[in-house]
Write a structure and sequence with these properties.
heterodimer; A: 111 residues; mainly alpha; 77% helix; 0% strand; flat; B: 108 residues; 4 helices; cell membrane (chain B); transmembrane (chain B); choline transmembrane transporter activity (chain B)
Chain lengths: 111, 108
Amino acid sequence: MRLAWFFLVLAIATEIAGLTALKAAGAYVGHAVMYGSIALSYVFLARAVKTIPVGVAYAIWEGSGVALITLVSVLVFDHVLTGREMLGLSMAVAGILLVNAGKVQDEEGER
Amino acid sequence: MSMSSFSFAFAVLAGIFDVAANLASTKSNGFSHRGWGAISIVLVLAAFALLAEAVKGMELAIAYAVLGATGIFGTAISGRLLFGQRLKPVGWIGLCLVFGAVLVLHTA
């Protein structure tokens, strides 16, 4: 199970790297890098959803993707957070925690 | 069909491709079925290409919200129907919050 979470984190990290590259580099290079890292991200996601329910994994992938991209724009691109963005970030964190709490554990153990 | 509903259809289609990519990813059993793994990657790249097509005629924020809603809820519902992966009510509240976050952050 722990390994699956490690792969989910890798999937999110590669997604963020791709989107950051898209923002930092120009049109063509940025797009090429983004498609490459999205593909890589799905290789990791496939490992993660071996044990994590796919609905949970995808919601976490999508939610932390958008939240972390906002943080990257603060840290790398000197963006200042608006109240709305702070609200969005808190919603993402709360939502991910609830989705995770809502998983129905497989009584038989890992499949 | 008007230009904007055409773009909207592209955004919905992008979401559907995204859901299909997630299902193929699950079917690949951690890439041990390479065919399903490859299909999953092709589908997700197609989803992004469709999103790029959608934003030519509509705002990125709206397109992303449509993609997010289709992707997040579509994946959870199909995961339950196809793989029997159930979610407690609190998990569905969480899904709504994540979708809300996507909406808030993309329109911020």
